[in-house]
Amino acid sequence: MAVPKKASRKQYAKGESLPKKLAQKIEQVFFDNDKLEYRTKNNFLQCIAIIFYYQVTQGNGLTVYVPLGRNYWKKIYGGNYRKSVISPLIQNGIIESLDFGFRTIPDGTVQTTKGKQDGYVGVRYRINPELLEEQFIFLPYVDKGKVLTALERILFDTQEFKLPEIPDLNFRVNININKANSWVEDNAERICNEMLKRDTVNSLPDGLQIECREYLDNGSFNVRYQSVKWSRIIAEAHNKEFFYFNNSYYIAKVDEFLQQRMPALIYHYKHEISKIGTSPVEENRSPVTLRIYSHLTNFPSRILQFVVINNKAVVQLDLRTSQFLIFANLLNVYIKDGEHSLLSLFNQNRNKTYLKRLISVLKQHQAQLPQVAVDISNRYSGKTSSCDVTNFINDVFFKDFYTVVQQELGLDDRLIAKHALFKLLFKKTNRPDELLNKLAQLYPIVINIIAEFKKPDKKKAVEAGDDTRESNFSVFLQCIEAEIFVDNILKRLRDEGIPCFSRHDSIIVVEGFEKDAERIAKTVFADFGFKYNHKVEEKFWEAVDFEELDDDPYMQWLTDEDILTTNYDTIGGFAEPIKDDFMDEDEIQTCHRVLEIGLQNDYYEHVDADFLEDISNLSWLNQSERNILFDDIINLRSGFSFVQGNTNQLLRNLVERIMEMDLQDEW
Question: If you average pLDDT over residues 247-269, what whole number do you get?
Fold first, then answer.
C-alpha cells in the first residue's frame, strides 16, 4: 500500500458559525473592546459556542437550559471561570442562567436547597433566545497563539485538529437553501413522529442500564445512567412517559416534548443548511480517532437530498455494521496470516500501537481461536464450526449482524440490539449487564477478547499519565476505520478526480461515479484481505433507512470523550428501594472491597474512578448518594487529585452500613 503523499492544504481561520444577532453582539461587546486581550475574547466566543452546541446542535431546545456544570467549566477555564467568563456573558445579555437548586425525594415532592450539603445545585445556561435568529454568519477567533474551537474542546480532549494528508477538495458543494429550508419546515412534524418510538422500550429488560434524559417542567433536563425499571418508575411517579426518540431514551410528557423538539429540529437543520456554500469546506483530522471532520461530516442525512456537487446530485456508499465488520476482519486476518501480516497492513503509528495490544490479547486466547480462517468469498465457510469466534465472523460477514443479535437476545427491535452492541464497544468498564451477559453466552471468547483489550495497563498508565487511550476499544476500531476510509479509499477517489467527501464509514460521491467508488472501495478492502459489505443509498431519499445513515450518538458518546457524562452535572433523583435481602455477585465483591479499605479520613489513595463507579452501582444506594459519587467519578477522570468531603463521608458511612449487614452467608 502506498504511503500517502504530503498535500499542500490551505489553513482556514478558526471560528464559529453562529446566529447573526448573536455574533454581532459578541463583536460589539467583546471583540471591539481594545481593553480585552485576545485570549479573553476567544474564551467568550468558545464558551458561547459550547453552549450553542449542546442547546441547538444537539437538538435540546431553543429555550432549554443546558446542564453544563461547574466541574466542566473549571476544567476549561479554571476555578475563576464564573467571574472571568460566565458572568460577563450574563451581564451583557448574551447568555442566561437559572439555578435549578432542588432535589427530588422519594415521595415525589421537590425540596429547594441552599447548599451543597442539602442536595445538588444545578446552575444551567442557555443562549438568550432573542439572539437565536435564523440568519447565520461565521465569526473567527482572534488568530494569535494556540486557539481551540468549541468542537476541538468538546470532542477531542482539547487537542487541535490536524490537516489530513489527502488531496484537497477540488469541487463545488452547494445547496438550494430556500428549497431545503421549506422542505424542513413542511416535514419537521413527520420527521419527529418517525423518530419517536414509544413501544421500543417495552422490550427492554428491567435491569438494563441506559443513558436517559429526564425533561423537567422548569426548562431543563437531567442526564443519568440508570436501569430501565427505574426509568419506568420515575416516569410513572412524575406522570410522564418513558420512550425512545432518535436513538436516545427520554422521560417527558410526549406532546410537550415534541412541541419543543420540532422547532429545535427546524432550527438545527437550517443552521446546518446555512453552512453549505457559505462556509469553506475545511477538512480537518481528529488526532484522537484519525477521522476527517468538516461541516459535511455530520450533516443531517434527511437533507442530503438537497446537496449537490458540481450541480449534480449525490449518492452515499455506506459500510454495513462497520465497527463489527472491521473487528471481524482483523480477527480473520490474524487467524489466517498471523501477527506480522496483520501489522504490515497499516501505516499509522497509532494503529500499530493498538494492533500490538490486540495481538497480545489474541495470543492469550490462542488455544481458543480456530485453526482455520473464514473464506471471505464463501458464505458456507466454517458454517458447521462450534467455535464462537468463527460463528461471530460468519454472522458479521454473511448476515445482518444486528438482526442476528436481536433474535438471539429475544429483543423486539433491531435498534435495541444495535445499541446493546455499541454499548459493548463503548462503555469504559467491563461491568456486565443483562444484555451483555446474553452476548457473552453467544460469543464468549469474542467478548473475553474485547474485555481483556479494555483492561488498562496500570504500570504503563502511571508512566504515561494516561490510563485509557491504549485500552479504548472503540477508538481503536475508529482509527482502523479511518486509515481504511481516509488514507486509502478517500485518497484514491480524490487522486482519480472523483468529487467526493467522507462521512466516517461512508463515502458521498457525485451521481454517476457510484461504480468507480465501489470499485475503489472493493480494491482497498481486497488489498487488506478484508471482507467488504456495503449498500448504496441512491437519491430516492424518502425510502432511505435514516437510522442506518445517521451517525449514532453512542459513537459520539464514546469517541468524543464521553460528552454527556463528563460535561453534564447530574442532580437530584429518587432514592431507589433498598434491596438488602439480596445482592448479586458483583455487589458482594464490591462490598468486600469497601470493607477491606475500612474507615479512612481521606479515601483518595484508596479509590479510583472505576471503583467509585462500582460502588455507585450498588442497588441499595439512593440517587442522592449516587450523585455524590458521580461528581467525584467525573473529577477523578478529569485529573483531580482529591475526593470531596461529602464523598469521604459517604464512604465512611458506607463502611459502617456494610459492617452492620448480615452478609456472612453471602461471603
Answer: 93
Cell of 599: 474507615
The confidence score (pLDDT) of residue 325 equals 92
Rounded CA separation 164/88 (Å): 37
Q: How many CB atoms lie within 10 A of CB 646?
A: 17
Instruction: Parse the chain into domains and list their residue ranges.
Output: 1-151, 156-166+284-294+320-558, 180-265, 575-660
Task: Give the span between the Cα atoms of 328 and 392, in whole angstroms.
Answer: 7
Q: What is the mean pLDDT of the chain?
A: 80
Q: Is 25 helix (H, G, I), strand (E, B) or coil?
A: helix
In a 10 Å sphere around its CB, with 0-12 CB exposed, 13-18 middle and 19+ buried, how is residue 310 labelled? exposed
* Rounded CA separation 638/79 (Å): 14
Contact status, residue 166 vs residue 486, Cβ threshold 8 Å: yes
For the record, the C-alpha cell of 275 comes out as 453552512
The grid cell for 335 is 487467524
As a whole number of angstroms, the distance between CA 506 and CA 308 comes to 17
At 109-163, the pLDDT tens digits run 334 433 333 333 368 899 999 999 999 999 999 988 778 888 888 766 667 778 7
Which residues are 209's β-sheet partners? 227
Phi and psi dihedrals of 222, rounded to 5?
Answer: -110, 145
Q: Residue 218 CA to chain centroid, in angstroms?
A: 27
Q: How confident is the model at residue 37 (pLDDT cuts 50, 70, 90)?
A: very high
Q: Is the pLDDT of residue 467 over 50?
A: no
What count of other Cβ atoms lies within 10 Å of the Cβ of residue 144? 11
Distances from the Cα of 565 to the Cα of 120, 144, 427, 580, 643, angstroms: 16, 32, 11, 28, 18
Q: Are 26 and 94 in contact (CB under 8 A)?
A: yes
Q: Which of 492, 485, 536 is nearest to 514 (CA)?
A: 536
Beta bridge partners, 95, equal: 127
Q: Is the backbone of residue 311 left (phi > 0), alpha (psi -120 to 50) or beta?
A: left
Handedness of CA 504, 510, 512, 517 (dihedral sign): negative
CA-CA distance, 653 to 648, in Å (whole number)?
A: 9
Check residue 552 and report its DSSP letter: P
- Alpha carbons 548 and 560: distance in angstroms, whole number: 20
* pLDDT tens readout for residues 205-232: 887 778 888 888 878 888 777 788 889 9
Residues 6+ apart with CB under 8 A from 574: 104, 105, 106, 230, 233, 234, 237, 622, 623
How far from 663 is each of 357, 583, 590, 595, 666, CA to CA, in Å? 40, 10, 13, 12, 5
pLDDT tens digit sequence for 401-430: 989 998 888 887 787 788 778 776 766 555
pLDDT band at 341 (very low <50, low <70, confident <90, very high): very high
What are 103's three cell numbers? 432535589
